[in-house]
Specification:
With 502 residues, this protein is mainly α. The chain contains 18 helices and 3 strands. Strands 1-3-2 form a 3-stranded mixed beta sheet, covered by helices on one side. One of its GO terms (cellular component) is membrane. This is Amino acid permease. Residues 477-502 are annotated as: Disordered.
Length: 502
Amino acid sequence: MSEKTSGLSTRHLSTGSLVFMIIAASAPLTVLAGGVPTSFAVSGRLGVPVTYVVLGILLMLFAIGYGAMSGHIQNAGAFYAYITEGLGGRQGIGAAVLALVAYNMMQIGLYGLFGFSLATVLTAWTGVSVPWWVAALLGWALVGVLGTHSVDLSAKVLGVLVSLEFLIVIVVGVLGLRTAPEGVSLEALRPGDFFTQGIGVLLAFGVAAFMGFESGAIYSEEAKDPRRTVSRATFIAVGVIAVFYAFSAWTLAMGVGPSAINEQSSELGPDLLFVWLASISPALSECANLLFITSLLAALIAFHNAAARYFFALGRSGVLPHKLAFSGSTGAPVAGSVTQSILALIVVVGFAAVGAGSSLGKMFPIVTLFTWLTNAAAFGLVFLLAVTSVAILVWFVRHPRGHGVITRWVAPALAAVGLGTVAALILVNFDLMIGSDQPSALVFVMPGIIIASGVFGLVWGEIILRRRPDAGLATKGIDAVPKRPADPDPSHTNAPQERTLS
């Protein structure tokens, strides 16, 4: 098959472009406006800034092995490839199906918040009531167009949007420190307010803010010098995200006041940031509100690209229909992008139909589409991170490749334990995460969808490998890439050749 139908654009993305793609998925302004107040409100603690530091350290541990392995294996289905190489073909296929479901749920769920936010702004500007689903479909159309074009275009758009996000968050930080009604203090940074009874809730809510950081490896086939670019971009992104989240959460607490931040967060929720800014500068509040919407758009683009590349990788390997491996003249995963867009359209239209006349009113897309799908997706992705850590550990046991014991053993092991614990905490606190104050079937249904997708993937993997033992990433279509200079350690001269998995 020609490259046009089965190949992504090659070696276009620089480290900077990858960093923007990764940070866009984490959506800094969305986290500041939505995630930070929610964490303050639900936990009732001041230790929210410390949460991001702790999670940043944990994810750095994951990135050590993840980045090192990315130098040897490049594939658009990152989790799929890593778990296949480390744990086996059927486990890889199980992980692939789970990842595909999780990325799609995260992307589609964001349309609920995006549609609500954009509709609110359009209604305020025009005086005409705009349904949330109409606003969501405007974003859907733009995301769909970008997804079928060169990844360079998405990278440029995301670069602009992420830069604007950083600018407004920095402005918020400066204003928070300048207007601090109770003075500037380190009260919200005390470890004692993190290592306390509410630590599980803080970790469960906090980790969702980092979702998307692992997406660097998804673009490894399209990155310049992937041996270094992916690892470097992942480390930079995690470090920047962790420091930025901790700084912005601390300065928001200072701006509102440590004694009032929990109560105000409970009362105002995501509106807290904009109400507080409006008391300082109404124009700045309007600007932040607009950039909040573009922040969501950036996240939609980033997760759309990730899901499209998973469809591409699974189509290319035969796990899903091979037609999904079609790519256009620009090297974009066209079939995967169109498939993801169709799924999003079906779900958004379905929720719009069900929500017509709902007692929840305008909050329907927030309470249902956004909250249900994104929190379930966060559980799935954290669980996959934990499993991937185990796969990395096992792979380096077999193929040391000259890496030290910290890279091969210590970091992956600690990451597996830490991320597994966070995944368990999300399950334990899932009722709080979806805002349920009473027993709800959703507590079991939404995580159940994620778990069921993984089980289905394992069964499907078993069926595929029984029918075609040569199928899957582990054995099919492996193309060699140039070797590194000879390993100076004689004990490693028989190590396997680096490769790109197709």
